Amino acid sequence: MAADDADQALKAFNAALKKKEDTSDLQSTANDAVAKVESERDSLEKDHAGDPAIATYAPVAKAQRAWLDALTLTIDAGDQTKRVRKFIDFVTDKKIEPFTEYARQNWPDKPDEFFSEAYSLFLSDPEFLKKNSAPLYNWFKSGSYK
To answer: Which stretches does UniProt call biased (Basic and acidic residues) (predicted)?
Structure first.
């Protein structure tokens, strides 16, 4: 049954994530398995409208999607933390001081604020960033923040 396969895939994905192992293949497998559960649910709803089994199966599909989304968010948050860590290392190494009042107020206690503001400037006003911190502009332009 697809729900059992999705359950096993989600458990494997979760276990690898907790162990900080590479999860890319497991994430893909879990995503495919959950999509199959959702497809089965949609088929049941279409072909057997009013069948009481749908009332049992639909919450399973919803819960598995929520679990997959939570695991994916955990990975995304970890990537963001890595990006902020790279940013901190770069600005510290290059002795780049925050160049706006907001960034100065939050540095160094909330480095993600300086990162967010600098990245936002890179996207919305690259000339300002280049003028105020050419090394930081070049760092973003080269993709080193990824």
So the answer is: 35-48
